[in-house]
Design brief:
This protein is α/β, with parallel strands linked by helices. It is 38% helix and 16% strand.
Length: 326
């Protein structure tokens, strides 16, 4: 059994578990291959496999079986042929399934499970090591990479922090850096609209005042709802806004590349109106509202800047200058 996330906006499975293999992005070749290689897919409380990019056919191979457990009956069988559909509370259904498997497996089957678990654990370790390697790479003459930024950020945050992920094209890397494994430490957006994070991180702080609340937000997302900074100051909500400033709508470039590949087109050699030639200075915008605003270009500064902002007990903006190249 290999565990993946899909469409998760919280901690549904501990990302530090040896069976964890990361989140599925069904626009990628790797995610589709992972699903199609499975003998049995057990989908628990998640869409199977929802996306706004059309892809013909089915993600799950005809030879494979799909078991879908969901509290919403209309979600079962919605987009993929389902062999066994179970309308139930996912937690209770999984507990009963685990009990049945424990009682129903014989000795040789248990040994086979242990062998597959070792294989999955090795793959999970390789997945984590690949992220750490990516986070260690820097390119001379360019801003710090998104992976390096989120790696330093995750290491700097206090253990009891609550992070809201609206970092868009950096979002997958942020999840991998945090490896969230406790309820109440990680939140995300269920929908596809940008701009959520600025208000949502204030909601996280109001809902759990004792936790440091950090919103990690893409620059294109932040400018959609930048007036949230005034709200944070005016209502004295000590949320921390970490802006991933890559001076572009990078996610649109990423999606353009996916769209071209999925439709058999050559990859784009340019992207229309997706860059910000006039720099966005989020630190200055924060200071205009009499809020602490810091610009960070060196990953070595992240620890002191983020913890200084948290310790201040006031709202703050940290303008992270990162590489926007693909």
């Amino acid at each position: 059994m290999r565990a993946y996330g899909h469409g998760s906006t919280g901690v549904n499975f501990p990302a530090n578990h040896p069976l964890w293999q990361g989140n599925l992005n069904m626009r990628t070749v790797e995610a589709v291959a992972a699903v199609r290689s499975a003998d049995v897919v057990v989908a628990v409380g998640c869409p199977v496999f929802e996306d706004f990019f059309y892809q013909p056919g089915q993600f799950i191979e005809a030879k494979s079986k799909l078991v879908h457990i969901d509290i919403n009956a209309d979600a079962i069988g919605k987009s993929e042929p389902t062999d066994i559909g179970i309308v139930a509370s996912p937690g209770k259904a999984l507990a009963q399934l685990a009990e049945a498997l424990t009682l129903g497996l014989n000795g040789s089957e248990i040994e086979a499970v242990r062998g597959r678990s070792k294989e999955a654990a090795a793959e999970s370790k390789a997945y984590s090591e690949a992220f750490r390697k990516l986070a260690s790479v820097s390119t001379k003459g360019r801003p710090m990479s998104p992976a390096m930024m989120v790696d330093h950020l995750a290491k700097a945050l206090p253990e009891n922090s609550a992070v809201f992920n609206d970092s868009i094209s950096t979002g997958g890397l942020l999840f991998d850096a945090l490896a969230p494994s406790k309820h109440g430490t990680y939140y995300g957006c269920r929908g596809q609209a940008i701009g959520w994070g600025m208000g949502a991180v204030m909601g996280v702080k109001l809902g759990s005042p004792s936790q440091p609340a950090i919103g990690v937000i893409g620059d294109g997302s932040a400018i959609m709802t930048i007036q949230a900074l005034w709200t944070a100051v005016n209502s004295d909500i000590p949320a921390i806004f970490v802006i991933c400033n890559n001076a572009s709508y990078r996610v649109l470039k990423v999606n353009a590349n996916h769209y071209h590949r999925l439709n058999g087109f050559d990859q784009p050699d340019s992207y229309f109106a997706m860059d910000f030639p006039n720099p966005l200075d989020f630190a200055a915008q924060a200071q205009a509202y009499d809020m602490q605003g810091s610009r960070v270009e060196d990953p070595a500064d992240i620890d002191s800047v983020i913890n200084s902002a948290i310790d201040s007990g006031k709202p703050a903006v940290i303008d992270m200058i990162i590489d926007g190249s693909l």
